[in-house]
Amino acid sequence: MYDIVIVGAGTAGLSAAIYAERAGKKALVLEAAAYGGQIINTPDIENYPGIAHISGFDFATGLYNQAKDLGAEIKFEKVLGIETDGNEKIVKTSGGEYRCKAVILATGAKNRPLGLDNEKELVGKGVSYCATCDGMFFRNQPVAVNGGGNTAVEDAEFLANFCSKVYIIHRRDAFRADEKEVERLKAKENVEFILNATVTKLNADDKGLKSIEVTDKNTKEVRTLEVNGLFVAIGQSPDNTAFANVTKLDSKGYIEAGEDLKTGTDGIFTAGDCRTKTVRQLTTAASDGAVAALAACAYIDAL
Ligand code: NAP
Asked: Which of 184, 200, 232 is at the close of a domain?
């Protein structure tokens, strides 16, 4: 029997574990994949207050070790669903089930695919959602990055350091990414911006991606770019369907919760990118983790 089961070992989940353990509660963190969440793939974090530069991997590993050292248990099991039994919650996983007094859902969000015909088959053969993980396979080769947020711009900057040419393709002419990052990317000689355009076709042979077709939104002109790699960085979408019985999901599948991070079910809280919110940043994920953990502690103390 745990006090709090936290679903997800990203920034929000691990922050929640740190706050729960420091408040004297026994926390179990359940993670389906690897710890760290999305930030683990970011080459360089520059906007976390108090830390000028840190890699996503170092940041996530620091959080993971901090949570473990404080006493949190972390198990790598996929959560399949949650049931309630009076005041107790039963968390069902691929490995069994865990009873607890409160649950914090910090499931994050997954990379959004482009939805092109052969995209799935080309993952690992030219199509990637992680420049930090796969970039080096394309050393001295031409690649493209699709997206206009911080991930796309940072990925393009990272790839430009060792790829022969980097195209950044964005569907609008204004970027969502921080202005400073965009300006830095513009200064790179081997980066070409293709704006108001979308990737409409992936051309491959049996060895992998050979080129992509990019269509201009205004002129409908199609341009073929000879690239061996395409890095898709068009944002994320949540995966909360397993929790639809105990939470209310909005039209995009995010868990609805106010700033108190309470879901519709007593004792079930949410934190981080998996919930409805306007700003999805590392700082807001960490902040959510703290708020949700303290709310869960107060809930348990009042039982
Ligand atoms: P994002 O900010 O949601 O940006 C996604 C981009 O993809 C947008 O430019 C969007 O275009 C475009 N897009 C969405 N769907 C598309 C489609 N079907 N086809 C083509 N383009 C599409 O996602 P993100 O860059 O992954 O960032 C997610 C969050 O993490 C953000 O809050 C970001 O600031 C944060 N982040 C922070 C750091 C850091 O602090 N170092 C690093 C990475 C990410 P529109 O602009 O037209 O909507």
From this structure: 232
Give the pLDDT confidence of 102-139 residue by residue, as tens digits. 999 999 998 899 999 999 999 989 999 989 888 999 99
The closest alpha carbon to 45, from 192, 147, 159, 151, belongs to 151
What pTM, to 2 d.p., does this model score?
Answer: 0.81
Q: What is the CATH number of the domain that holds 35?
A: 3.50.50.60
Active site residues: 130, 133-134
Between the CA of 147 and the centroid of ligand 1 the distance, in Å, is 6
Residues near 232 by beta carbon (within 8 Å), at least 6 away in sequence? 111, 112, 113, 114, 119, 127, 128, 129, 146, 147
Find out whether 146 and 273 touch, Cβ atoms under 8 Å.
Answer: no
- Total residues belonging to the chain: 303
For 105, half-sphere exposure in the C-beta direction (CA atoms, 13 angstrom radius) is 35
CB-CB neighbours of 95 under 10 Å: 13
CA–centroid distance, residue 84 to ligand 1 (Å): 36
Amino acid (1-letter code) at residue 1: M
Provide the number of structural domains found in the chain.
Answer: 2
